[in-house]
Amino acid sequence: MKSKLADIILTVFFPRRCAVCGKVIFPDEVVCDNCDIEKHRIPYPKCDKCGQAEGFCNCGADKLSFDHIITPFYYEGDIRTCIKNFKFKGYYDNGKFLAGEMVRALEEEYVFEKPDLIVPVPMTKRRKRRRGFSQTDTLARRISEATGIEFRGDLLRKTRETPPQVGLGAKERRNNLVNAFAVSENENLKGKTIIVCDDTKTTGTTLHECAKALKRAGAKKVIGLTAALTKNDFRGEAY
User: Fold this and answer.
1) What is the pLDDT of residue 114?
2) pLDDT, average across residues 109-133
3) Residues 121, 206: contact at Cβ < 8 Å?
4) For residue range 173-213, what is the model confidence (pLDDT) as tens digits?
5) Which CATH number belongs to the domain containing residue 224 in this structure?
6) Among residues 44, 112, 134, 169, which is most buried (max CB within 10 A)?
């Protein structure tokens, strides 16, 4: 009885909100009737290297250091809204929803050995203070709790402040993050399979640079895991 009463009180003062728009919904719902997430789910078959649906693969365009990319959604429409509300408006329930979808995609698509570690794409302390939290840290922790994969938030660090990737062209994105990540000192990652967690993949530059640092430290395999990725057009270019 006490537990049920507590649930009712929590629902009144902290109502469940739509994972996309923030509208108050019933406790057993995830999104409201006005929001549609399924139309943004990446259909199978899809490429395990770039994450794009068949026909949109651009693996020949760049040589990226990570071995696989796993992503449930395209970064568009309601999913874009969901991620932005999580990152910039503090809709923390959105993080729970996104992490759950990332776990589902990981379990469906990665059929090899269980990864050893999961690490978030790091933020500088200055940017983390400005935002108030790290969205990648939050996602990676939730995924760790759900899967039992060890979380290591201290393994990767960002070595310098860089301009935001948003608004930069593909070449500028690549140059912006060159050697911007490093593995903490005295870490031996020989033979380990590591997941790098981010909220969104556009060109893959961030994951590429993180994977470079991890493989320099001995990692055998690096898997990129994101909530969404930017859809390619028919020429294999992100838009």
Assistant:
1) 92
2) 83
3) yes
4) 555 666 778 898 888 899 999 999 999 998 888 999 999 99
5) 3.40.50.2020
6) 134
β-pairing, 221-229 with 68-70? parallel
Q: Are residues 119 and 211 in the same domain?
A: yes
User: Tokens standing for 150?
Assistant: 């060890």
* Cα–Cα distance measured from residue 80 to residue 91, given in angstroms and rounded to the nearest whole number: 13
Structure tokens at 219: 């990692």
Name the more confident of 173 and 66: 66
Q: Which stretches does DSSP call E strand in 63-174?
A: 68-70, 73-74, 117-120, 150-151, 156-158
If asked whether residues 45 and 24 sit together in one domain, one would say: no
pTM: 0.84
Do residues 158 and 208 share a domain? yes
pLDDT above 80 (res 66): yes
What is the domain extent for residue 108?
A: 37-229
User: How many Cα atoms within 13 Å fall on the side-chain side of residue 100?
Assistant: 8
Could you give the number of structural domains in the chain?
A: 2
Nearest-angstrom CA–CA distance, 213 and 202: 19
Whether the Cβ atoms of residue 84 and residue 94 lie closer than 8 Å to each other? no
The two tokens of residue 31 are 């999104």
